[in-house]
Design brief:
L,D-transpeptidase catalytic domain-like, 10 strands, globular
């Protein structure tokens, strides 16, 4: 079976676009469209969260980073400084922290991973800091991304947390800035 000239050109163009980061593979989320100029004094691979910008940056180096919109801690729950990713979980279970349960006693004591009501979403990257995590969200809470809404966690869109999950490893440095 021979390939037509048009099919070869189309394949070459798609390959070139993919190599340049202009085309995302299916299932890679929207991150391929969010590479931004970013000059940070941190090592490539570092996760930097800007509470003010409501953004998480995965530093690529050479003046670039992948930018993801996030929900950050609400007033009184903020934190800043360094942490490290100490765990990676697919469809994590959720037990509400004491402070969350106190403010929302109607919440169940446990939600199984994979449940559409699980506020951790489809992936969680736990941090070595005060029960904080970078995690996905429920369909109901998607609108909170871009706001200050959490009890200390960093909330991402599920498609974005899946992308980030694949790009980072346990031990990755996380920096939270005001």
């Amino acid at each position: 079976m021979s390939i037509s000239f048009r099919q070869r050109i189309s394949s070459l163009a798609a390959g070139a676009a993919l190599a340049c980061g202009l085309l995302a593979l299916p299932g890679t989320g929207s991150a391929a469209h969010n590479v931004v100029a970013y000059n940070a004094q941190v090592q490539p691979g570092t996760v930097v969260i800007s509470a003010r910008q409501r953004s998480l940056f995965l530093v690529l180096g050479d003046g670039a980073a992948i930018r993801y919109p996030v929900a950050v801690p609400k007033a009184g729950k903020e934190w800043s400084g360094y942490a490290h990713i100490d765990g990676k979980y697919v469809n994590p279970d959720w037990v509400p922290p004491t402070v969350v349960k106190h403010d929302h006693p109607e919440l169940p004591n446990f939600i199984h991973g994979g449940s559409p009501h699980n506020p951790m979403g489809v992936r969680a990257l736990t941090l070595d800091r005060n029960q904080a995590a970078i995690h996905g969200t429920t369909a109901k809470m998607r609108a909170s991304v871009g706001t200050a809404a959490s009890y200390g966690c960093i909330r991402m869109l599920n498609e974005d947390v899946v992308d980030l999950y694949e790009r980072v490893s346990v031990g990755t440095t996380v920096v939270m800035t005001p």
